[in-house]
Design a protein that fits this description.
The complex is a heterodimer of chains A (147) and B (310). Chain A has 147 residues and is mostly beta strands. Chain A has a five-stranded antiparallel beta sheet with strand order 2-3-1-4-5, with helices on one face. Chain B folds into two domains: 147 residues, Rossmann fold (3-Layer(aba) Sandwich), CATH 3.40.50.1370; 155 residues, 3-Layer(aba) Sandwich (Rossmann fold), CATH 3.40.50.1370. Chain B has a five-stranded parallel beta sheet. In chain B, helix 6 crosses helix 7. The chains are: A mainly beta (147), B alpha/beta (310).
Chain lengths: 147, 310
């Protein structure tokens, strides 16, 4: 058995309990492919809670509220671990707010929010499956279609 | 009594039927009865801004007529080419400026959510006269008023929607509104123009009974209302396919033999070939009365919003 599956990090953030197969979507939505420090991605790890899970470790980074909300869109069960000196200094679960402003672009090209210089606005429509509703065009989208 | 006191439409925006509770819909429909033949200057000195960025016959003219019959005035445009939008002015700016000139605005715009944005930009109430494929709430209210008027009730009726159920915003809004009244819905369409899944999801959430069909003959015996829609030619890349579908979904007199005597045919108009002209004289035809009801309901809405009635 391997002593570890994903390297421990000294300082930074671990996004744990990402639904299996969605780690790369988290990387994409946080633009971690453009991040200039080490990002470790684990896909298909065993999880007592989820069966299979993904994990993303980001060295020397703390996440903003906007970034946390973006994670909640595609990994609603994710746990955030803030790591300091190899130890978990803080741990919490992400939670998608009921109302999101300027977080994501509406996928509907006919939506007024895509055509005027305004912020997008979305409401949480359902949690299982995770869907959001555009304040303007009123369309309901699967969270994955927003990436 | 108590309920009526709680509902207040003064200075309220009319953007989406989804913003209405069942009680509010019933309140508007009850209020509209008093406007059937009303021509009183209860909106004297009020000005309605009519901003139509897309073509319209019934909606624009009925709003203008409603305002005139209640003693008010209208300003605005029916063609965006004569507005400052051709100079690159944003919708937000246009609405902010016009809201300084009048007491309420009715807007039709091709982009979805435009009326919601206009309401946010405006200090005065905004009425959505159609925002792309999204909403047309005054059409839904006049449809409901028409159903109530010809059948005496809305609750528990069997209603078939026929034709283009995929792109027709009228059908989407009406289906959502009817789900509040416990109606049984039948969706009759070709495979390529079926009712969208998000509407079905909403109907399932509200436990509305519905079924999908290929031909109106399958359900005609049950129906109190057959709501026809136009199948749009531009949706079909192959003209031959359009001809075939359009012919299949045209209603024929023979179909009525099995219908209830009280069954009525509605259509948001304009029609093309889906209702042949020889049906116009039938006891079942009710689409011209439906169009006329647009004036009644819009008079009521303007009066409620602008304070012409309490």
């Amino acid at each position: 058995m391997r002593p570890y599956k994903v390297y421990a990090i000294k300082h930074g953030t671990v996004i744990d309990h990402i639904d299996s197969g969605n780690a790369l979507k988290v990387v994409k939505i946080l633009k971690l492919d453009e991040y200039d420090q080490i990002v470790t991605v684990g896909i298909g790890l065993e999880s007592k809670k989820m069966g299979k899970k993904d994990i993303v470790k980001i060295e020397n980074k703390s996440l903003t509220k906007t970034e946390l909300n973006k994670i909640a869109l595609i990994a609603p069960h994710a746990t955030i671990n803030i790591i300091q000196e190899f130890k978990v200094a803080q741990k919490f679960e992400v939670a998608l707010p009921q109302f999101m402003e300027n977080l994501i672009k509406c996928p509907n090209p006919q939506c007024i929010s895509r055509n005027e210089d305004i912020y997008s606005k979305f409401y949480k429509h359902s949690l299982n499956p995770l869907k959001v509703r555009c304040h303007y065009c009123e369309r309901v989208f699967d969270s994955f279609s927003l990436i | 009594m108590g309920r009526e006191r709680e509902i207040d439409f003064l200075h309220r925006d009319i953007i989406s039927i989804n913003d209405f509770s069942k009680d509010e819909i019933v309140y508007v429909l009850e209020s509209a009865k008093a406007f059937e033949h009303m021509r009183k200057p209860i909106l004297k000195d009020s000005v309605l801004g009519v901003l139509f960025f897309e073509p319209s016959t019934r909606t624009r003219l009925s709003f203008e007529s409603a305002m005139a019959q209640l003693g008010g005035k209208t300003i605005g445009f029916a063609d965006p080419l004569v507005s400052s939008s051709t100079k690159g002015e944003s919708l937000l700016d246009t609405v902010k400026i016009v809201s300084g000139y009048c007491d309420a605005i009715v807007i039709r715009h091709p982009l979805e959510g435009s009326a919601r944005l206009a309401a946010e930009a405006s200090e005065i109430p905004v009425i959505n006269g159609g925002d792309g494929a999204n909403q047309h709430p005054t059409q839904t209210l006049l449809d409901l008023y028409t159903i109530k008027k010809c059948q005496g009730r809305i609750s528990g009726l069997n209603i078939a929607m026929v034709g283009d159920l995929k792109y027709g915003r009228t059908v989407h809004s009406l289906a959502c509104a009817l789900s509040k009244f416990g109606c049984r819905l039948y969706f009759v369409s070709p495979e390529s123009l079926k009712i969208p899944k998000h509407i079905i999801d909403d109907l399932q959430n509200s436990e509305t009974e519905y079924s999908e069909h290929k031909e109106v003959g399958e359900v005609i015996k049950e129906c109190d209302i057959v709501y026809m829609t136009r199948i749009q030619k531009e949706r079909f890349p192959d003209p031959a396919e359009y001809e075939r579908i359009a012919h299949t979904y045209a209603i024929e007199k023979d179909v009525f033999r099995e219908a209830k005597p009280t069954m009525k045919i509605m259509h948001p108009l304009p029609r093309v070939s889906e209702i042949p002209k020889d049906i116009d004289d039938s006891e079942h035809a009710y689409y011209f009365e439906q169009a006329a009801n647009g004036l009644v309901v819009r008079k009521a809405l303007l009066a409620l919003i602008l304070g012409g009635v309490k």
